[in-house]
Input
Amino acid sequence: MMKMSLRWYGKEYDSVTLEQIRQIPGVEGVITTLYGKQAGQLWQKDEIRALKQDVQQSGLSIYGIESVNVSDEIKVGAPQRDQDIERYIETLKNLSAEGIDLVCYNFMSVFDWTRSELAKRRPDNSTVLAYDQDKVDKINPEDMFANLESDTNGYVMPGWEPERLTRIRDLFEMYREVDHASLFDNLVYFLKAIMPTCERYGVKMALHIDDPVWSVFGLPRIVKGQQDLQAIMQAVPSPYNGVTLCTGSLSSSPDNDIPQIIRSLEGRIHFAHVRNTEHVKPGVFQESAHLSSDGSLDMYEIIKAFDDIGFEGPVRPDHGRAIWGEVAMPGYGLYDRALGSQYLLGLMEAIEKQKSRGQ
Ligand code: DNO
Output
């Protein structure tokens, strides 16, 4: 069965503590990162060791890194990409020297995940992250941060760090010539360059799904559904080239049949993000509680599909609602993610028992 975990943003930054995570039943590991590292920077061994010691002192383990970010130079195929790839390879070796064998990353252009609202009210008065294409169409990407800042509880959303937003115009300029085909080729170039190291040191790469699964601000997106994923898996067939199967991201389009996508990726899923969303209409969705009945996804069928392909890697509940007055980074409070983890563990236990009883 899968190993339940929680994402933790580090002791200087996260409002959630390791001590709290340790008390969630069934959670023995975290997914974390060296917060503050810029894409393209080398991760030193002693920094990784210090992070590992913090986690271990609380009785938890590091199940993987989310993320070692890939630089824009690598994504656009700029001449300096080889230097960045060299540093990425060194980082992978340093992680492996500390016993870390799973790295999540994304290949989204300019922004990481995108939302138009960070505190959309649900009928139960909780707030969630939401996306509405009409609203996004009205946003000038340069004003993105100004539009959202008031809702972030003082946190910076991944991919929207101020140092990136001050150079947003340059970033868009960098991507001007990049289309779907060249972004795909640049991903393959990156993967082919790092795979020998991954194979030698046993580090699994887990590519995150684009969120949402369509082009935003006219930028190309290449990890949107089954076809894209198959193309990437086939282009670089090493088993170390794998996927972070994020159900929430895939669910931004109801055309994605998530249980089927999971089954089509047997042996290539290294990490799972499991959450639910409510599909409102094409281009409009909002996040929900993890429970199937609160959103549009059938979480039983999803966990069953993971079980059917024998997936045993780490899984984490994903964006939670803001509930019970908690003030945290949007999507990453303790309470609703802890609830989500227990629900998912319940589904897993039921599926395991049904199987062992031959039902
Ligand atoms: C959002 C996350 C993403 C993810 C990165 C992986 O909450 O799932 O920010 O961590 O795309 O690099």
